[in-house]
Amino acid sequence: MFDKRLLRLAPGIGRLVAGKVLMLWLTLLSNIAFAVTLVSMLGDLLNAVDGKGPIPLSCRVDHVNGGCVAFDRSDLLPELPQFMTWTPARIGAYAVAFAVILLVRYLATKGANHLGFLASERVKLALRTRLYRKMLTLGPDYSSKVRTADVVQLAGEGVEQVQTFFELFLPQLFYSVLAPITLFVVVLPISVPAAVTLLVCAPLIVLIVGAVAMSAARVFKKYWGKYTDLGSEFLDDLQGLETLKIFDADQRAHDRMNRRAEEFRVMTMKVLQIQLRSLTAMDLVAYGGTAAGIIVAVTQYLHADTSMLSLAGCMLIVLLSADFFIPLRQLGSYFHVAMNGMTSTKKIFAVLDIPESGRIGDVEQAHAPSIDDAEIVFSHVGYRYSQTGNDSAGKDATADTEGNVDGTGDGSKADSPRDALHDVSFTVLPHTLTAVVGVSGSGKSTAAGILAGRLTGYEGSVSFRHAASAPVEPHGTADSIATVELRDCARDFLLGEVTIVSASSHLFHATIRENLLMARPDAADAELWDALDRAHIADWVREQPQGLDLMIEEGAANLSGGQKQRLALARGLLHDSAVYVFDEATSNVDAESESLILQAIHALAETKTVLMITHRMANAVEADRVVVFDHGTVVETGAHDELMAIDGRYAELFRTQNAVESFGDDLGSRTVEILPLRSDASGTTDGTTDGANGTDGTEPATPEAPSSSTFALIRRLLGVARPLTRFMVCATVFGTIGHLAATFLPVFGMFALLAVAGHPVWGMGLPAAVAGIVICAVLRGIMRYTEQYMNHNVAFRLLALFRDRAFAALRRLAPAKLTGRGKGDLIALITTDVELLEIFFAHTISPVSIAVITSLTFAVVLAALNPWMALVLLGAHLVVGVLVPKLFAGSVSGIGPDIRRRSAALDDYVLDGMRGIDETIRFARGSRRVEEIARRTRELTSVRSKLSDVNGRFAGIGGLLVQLFTMLAATVAILCAVPEPMSVPESLASVVLIASSFGPTLALSALPANLTQTFAAARRLFALMDETPAVDERGTKNAAYAGMSLDHVVFSYDGHRGGSGEGRDGRDGHASRVLDDVSLKVPRTGVLGIQGPSGTGKSTLLKLLMRYWDPDSGRVVVEDSGRETRVGGIADSAVSQRIDLRDLDAHHRRRMQTMMSQETYLFDGSIRENLLVADPQADDDRLRAALERASVAQFVDSLPQGIDTPVGELGDRLSEGERQRIGLARVFLRDADLVLFDEPTSRLDALNEAIILRSIADLAGRRDPDGRQGPAVVMVSHRRSAMRIVDRLVEVR
């Protein structure tokens, strides 16, 4: 039924589970002892009404005739007061007995809760840490084997699902076997037929559970698959929400997500139906078995002359018969959540079982020599990306990954793999700078990935050879002492000797100091500043108020591209290894910064061995040696001058570069406009100011809801559920009938016994009482199904509605308000938090109504039996159902929000770790990362422990109060027998009714433990839905584009913490303005170039034009040409006008303009699907034309599946350049009037840059068949060469 490895995950798990089973068994024994003691306490009353029992050996004095007259059975009840003798000793004995029983029950209940919690938390910690260790072992290529969102969900919600399995299901499984046997042993001496009947029925429930487990396993697997698919698709859409909004495709994504949510709801209902059918069958068996046991006992009592069964014995059977089946019924109710846990653990173990063969470090080398002075020799090296998925993701996912050189693509669905490298031979001399050049997809980064240990399974030889050793022959026959083969190097050795800094190096959501210390944990501040100085980013860091303690937001959202890259460079320099590999390390920086960084790299090469992979041919001129890649092999090596003299491939690429530099008009003949942008030091970047989203590195960025009262929150939740009121009313009606049936079944049993004893209650005879028993047993099973189906039908419909509203809120907030916000937290919000609402909608609304209605019904019935008992019941239910939950809720207030906050932060941390797993491995910080996950998990466990302790305490108190009030009812029955002995039958029935009546009310007393997290989740969701977006997109106007302009714009990211409203009041936004009184005119046609250093606000200009934000003061205006436009179907007059961007219809604006940002986002689908984001109606001819204009058609044609080739998660089956070109094709496909480019050629080689620039120039200069001029283009770039095509150049300062 479950993987036995679960019990071996952590020490002591088996003992903890066994301990909980023991505690549950002690609870059962205390219940048995209580029932026996209670029946004994009522012994006088039972003997008095027992028409089948023995007559007391005593007589009654006849005061008229004298003498002593013997009693008969009819005299016992009226004379009952004479027989009751409650001496202090007897009262004390019962008091002590009950005190001991109650104490044992309380301690056993609390102990069972605690031991189950410890077992589940130990397993969760072990699974979470093992899962991340597995990701570390798999390395950066993990995404080809398992999706990132799946890992995050498995490490979060998937691991949490294990809690129910270990805390509830597994102990209950063993206890369910032990309990019936124990009760059989107890009942057997009282009534053998009843004991046998009860025992025979019990295994039927086990058979039902087993049958359901077999039939449900496949459905649960599909259910969990749908759940993780929903999370994965949501993460993909969430990360690409900016792209979706740019292309006005967010509504389509929203509709698609709603379809997925509906599919998940349908699958959930299928799972629910399986569960409910099993519960119905179990209830029919359980209550049918209870009824059968009671009927057998009644029948045996009817023939008491031969059976010797007393009324007291029968009452004990009535009280214990339900306990026979409660453990098994509870096992069934835990089953569906346990199946979730078992399914998620199967998925976790499937990840843990992924083969790891071929990873670096498989062969240990205890005494590897230093490679400080060693040559790096590639000799006849070949490499192909596997199509099996085992090593297909071994490519460098963060650089220009040449696994796609011939179109195989990492992990593509090719029938056979193709060579990424073949017969590659070259040597890197120590303490020199070797430049590696070539077009995108030529194999450069694949070679770097092999050297860095990212890729294994290469052919040929890659070795570190000291200069004194003999030359290496083609197959590596060198001196074995002085030569080290890379594949033989231990992981730690290689990680310490080789550092790689790529164009997409990950910066963690932590401080600058913490990010730098990853490279060298023992570095002093002086060393950190030295590395920052060498990377030419120290001045910017010094300008920040927090300095080294500046918090970097998730995805480095508060840094510009150049700042991010220079911080990654500083971290790499701090690592101080023998070999450095710079893979496009200057692709996102301005010309001045590029020059400074190149100086740092050249200085580094004086003492280190440096490989510099670059698309910029000019960067190779000063290199000591140049290696030229072409189609997966090395075609030329030598110094720049030598290669130019050869006039081969290198010379061709270099001349192309020069052609790009001279492409277009001479900048010297063009007027350069100077646009001053005030950008004060206080945290201002191209992105946002630091901390703009209020993150502190620990708390998730999702805002907390305003502290509304719980009553107001409940009222709002009920308001959402109001349209489904009819279903909730039906659930309440069916549930009430079911619970009344469950309670009155033993009451009818008592009625039957009293009828046989000759004291029928309300004149009810034996046949009527037996019929009542049977009807109650059947009704309970049927009503349970209908109640639960109605409740969950309501709940799952509402969960889908909440997902819809949550995604709608994210669409409103994107992209500005989601910048830097934790994606792991948002995944938890739309999956785990939404699922937690089920507790309120399915397990709170109708149960509260049912508890109230059933309590009042019981009170009415008791008032007819014994009014004093009605008062006891009302008092008991008020205490158990109102007072206890109120006290419980007070004890757990604040715990639920803390759990949700820490859980979300843990999800964020795991996701951040997955995104930066390459850096974690590279800097040997995996163990530290695992320790941090363990620490955060333990902190979460500590908070959960508080909830568990309170839950255990109140569960014990609830059980204790039920028995105390049952004792009180028995005491009232005894007291009422003194003045009114003839009321004893009604009093006995009342005691049974009160003892059986607490089911619905006890459910209320347990609600606070569950609702504390549910209410916290609801507050988080409502906070998201209520958050004010950065811009209010309620404009209604259309415009015929004739240009745009910024008029005296003032903008500060600090000024937008409170939302878009601040943009209209003209506040100046503290001192850290990004733009200060800026005016800029965007033309109707032609190319406008914007150039300037990193971090000066260039990207902010584009974001204001795209209306990510509104200015603090001033206006962003669209020039309307005056052509006739239509708004809402009504024609406007053709009047030329200037329209405030805020007044423009959002959908019209997105059709009018489009943008390609610095980071091209590709969705986890095919190339075709990614292109259709821009225009879902585009046919193959249009797609082909867009690919050709982006210089990527030839590459797509080379792929085995062509345009239908999957691009992988985050597009990581493609190189950086290939991703960028497909992004450009997507922009070209959009028929917009204004196209904005943010660094469109930053990661392209010279040849492709030339082609792309010509395409952009053609785009701006073309005319369509109707004679309409091409769109206006605004291009931001730090590359001077990119500015050659502009008609007008603006330099920002």
TrEMBL record:
Residue stretches spanning the membrane: 21-42, 91-108, 173-190, 196-217, 284-302, 308-326, 724-755, 761-782, 839-862, 868-892, 954-975, 987-1011
Membrane topology reported for the UniProt record: Multi-pass membrane protein
Pfam family, one: ABC_membrane
Renumbered residue ranges of the record's region Disordered: 388-417, 678-707
Residues annotated as domain ABC transmembrane type-1: 21-340, 731-1013
Gene3D superfamilies: ABC transporter type 1, transmembrane domain, P-loop containing nucleotide triphosphate hydrolases
InterPro entries hit by this protein: AAA+_ATPase, ABC1_TM_dom, ABC1_TM_sf, ABC_transporter-like_ATP-bd, ABC_transporter-like_CS, P-loop_NTPase, Type_1_exporter
Subcellular location: Cell membrane
Recorded superkingdom: Bacteria
Protein name, per record: ABC transporter ATP-binding protein
SMART domains to which the protein is assigned, alphabetical: AAA
GO CC annotations, alphabetized: plasma membrane
Sequence ranges of Low complexity compositional bias: 679-698
MF terms (GO), sorted A to Z: ABC-type transporter activity; ATP binding; ATP hydrolysis activity; ATPase-coupled lipid transmembrane transporter activity
Principal location class: membrane
UniProtKB keywords: ATP-binding, Membrane, Nucleotide-binding, Transmembrane, Transmembrane helix
Domain ABC transporter span(s) in chain numbering: 406-656, 1044-1292
